[in-house]
């Protein structure tokens, strides 16, 4: 079997960074180099005081244990390619913004550029692993590009090894994955390459959890997993609308349904809408794939999961306006949380962005606080959400605050957009004292104890429950 001693990862982002740092930790005999074109990002990974470019619980400890030992971060992509035996391609694959498939298809430009660079630079055979989430059969395009551009004597094997980590729990997900999925061609060479990668994971993952399948199944499984996870949330969110209208309680409904062992209790939490860089992008990708395959009913089915999510966000901002006596013009709204979920500083597709944009267009004043998201990121997201509004005008309406308490001062309503634990634990009596009356709380995350807050004096509106 092929022995792997040098691994390269192209792309030092939310996936490449944590994934390959954990490989370095669990495989001290393997040298792992992570490269990126973005120098600022690499500098942050290399920063002497470990101010890493992404916030992820437990990540710093892993990097501290390996950096400079068998884990290296660099911008020298070419050197990395030449030296490695196995290369992860972990670059971004965002939704295309223009051209064919705009708004749906994955932009494979970064994957292709990385692939072409591997072909151009490699002077020995490599195993090339698709880590990025890509449409079904991308591995075939990669193989064609590599074979058409390779030097004599260089052979490339392509594997698909999608990543299932969730942000906020990346390190524990990587330490104890539900499964590791490796797809390969079912040829002797393909199977050998697959065994080589499986051998890397076998340093800490039990063989029963390493699934080896065909390339196309592996690629499609990743889109399928995200689509089915997101579909659960959209299902529960659709039911939350019925709960609000009928007096049922979504927590009780989800709990009752989840008790069925065929459904299971996890991932049934109603919310203001799912966010994150993956769900929407991957479903739209699946919709596009279905349409390209002339399967319009399949496409429409999955598209509805994203549409329900958009509806949920719209419905929530409308509820805020309706409850505040049909106008929020000139009123101060505190938005607690800007990240797309707790324990991350990532804001991609965060529901908070949509809510704040909606409040802005109602001419409200918004105070926002998030414990991890940096200020520049908030301004960047808000300008992108309202491209016709200059930043100066946005800044007249939106204020970024240093604490939850500060954000809630003089507000008419508090909107909980992210389930940060600290929002559960703030001194709500203190918050109440400094708010305008009646003081409203809109809990978009089923986070706070509605009964306790009502006792303090708040009018509490929780997702999936009738309003106060
Ligand atoms: P990211 O944007 O955080 O990181 C990608 C990095 O690749 C960027 O830093 C970019 O500068 C770099 N890059 C792009 N082209 C390059 C090139 N040619 N050479 C060197 N560096 C290059 O993205 P991410 O969140 O890490 O996602 C990466 C992939 O993993 C995507 O396909 C995504 O769908 C998938 N994925 C993401 C998650 C997640 O939770 N974020 C989970 C599973 C899968
Ligand atoms: C997701 C997948 O879980 C992961 O397997 C894949 O590799 C990448 O995409 P991520 O987006 O990081 O991970 O976080 P996840 O925990 O799945 O949450 C996504 C969004 O759904 C968040 O906005 C979260 O708040 C929301 N969510 C999650 C709910 O609204 N309700 C739930 O029950 C669970």
Automatic annotation (TrEMBL):
GO process annotations (BP): glycosaminoglycan biosynthetic process
E.C. code: 1.1.1.22
Residues holding NAD(+): 11-16, 36, 41, 91-95, 132-133, 167, 278-281, 348
Protein's pathway: Nucleotide-sugar biosynthesis; UDP-alpha-D-glucuronate biosynthesis; UDP-alpha-D-glucuronate from UDP-alpha-D-glucose: step 1/1
Record-level GO cellular component terms: nucleus
Residue numbers binding substrate: 163-167, 222-226, 262, 269-275, 340-341, 445
InterPro entries (UniProt xref): 6-PGluconate_DH-like_C_sf, NAD(P)-bd_dom_sf, UDP-Glc/GDP-Man, UDP-Glc/GDP-Man_DH_C, UDP-Glc/GDP-Man_DH_C_sf, UDP-Glc/GDP-Man_DH_dimer, UDP-Glc/GDP-Man_DH_N, UDPglc_DH_euk
Catalytic activity: UDP-alpha-D-glucose + 2 NAD(+) + H2O = UDP-alpha-D-glucuronate + 2 NADH + 3 H(+)
GO MF assignments: NAD binding; UDP-glucose 6-dehydrogenase activity
Domain UDP-glucose/GDP-mannose dehydrogenase C-terminal positions: 334-450
Alphabetized Pfam families for the sequence: UDPG_MGDP_dh, UDPG_MGDP_dh_C, UDPG_MGDP_dh_N
Family: Belongs to the UDP-glucose/GDP-mannose dehydrogenase family.
Record-given protein name: UDP-glucose 6-dehydrogenase
Biological source species: Mycena albidolilacea
